[in-house]
Design goal:
By secondary structure, the chain is mainly α. The protein is built from six helices and no strands.
């Protein structure tokens, strides 16, 4: 559980690879622990979200030129900053539910002094839907999902690596 907590924190703060890549197989091989696994992933995510929010609030002015390219680029930051100023809660929820890196949402929310309780609530709802939704999926699909995963794990993993490589190339090319 400690490894999952740390992995979830790293995924939220730095690593653009979705935690679901380890969470789904773990839930399928340990179905009795699926709810606890979802809760631990969510706790790691929210802990990292607090750190990212604080980083956005304290450091964006001083180190923004370094941090913004690391977390998606100036265009992504500016677009999300505009969206937060217009409808912050929905913007944070949307980014939290989708597999888009959550770092920009944390930095912008902290840098723009978006209310911390609303930020945490949006992150809790969005990431809770993702992680507990996976637990529901494993509960519903059960053994069928495990058989499918065992049969297709390598192609899915290969697809994930290719998708990550394309994303990395796209980030560098911009």
């Amino acid at each position: 559980m400690v490894v999952l907590f740390v992995a979830s924190m790293l995924e939220t703060l730095l690593v653009p690879i979705p935690i679901e890549l380890i969470l789904i197989p773990w839930m399928m091989t340990h179905p009795a622990a699926k709810w606890r696994l979802a809760a631990v992933a969510l706790a790691g995510n929210l802990s990292a979200a607090l750190l990212g929010y604080a980083l956005g609030g304290l450091a964006i002015a001083q180190w923004g030129d370094t941090l913004i390219p690391l977390f998606g680029g100036q265009a992504a930051y500016d677009a999300f900053a505009q969206r937060v100023s217009e409808d912050g809660f929905q913007a944070i929820v949307a980014v939290g539910i989708t597999p888009v890196p959550f770092q920009i949402a944390m930095l912008v929310a902290g840098a723009s002094d978006y209310p911390l309780p609303l930020f945490l609530l949006a992150a809790l709802l969005a990431r809770g839907v993702r992680y507990f939704g996976l637990a529901v999926l494993v509960a519903v699909a059960g053994e069928r999902a495990t058989r499918l995963w065992k049969r297709h794990a390598r192609p899915v993993g290969a697809f994930g690596l290719v998708a990550f490589a394309v994303w990395g190339y796209w980030q560098i090319a911009q």
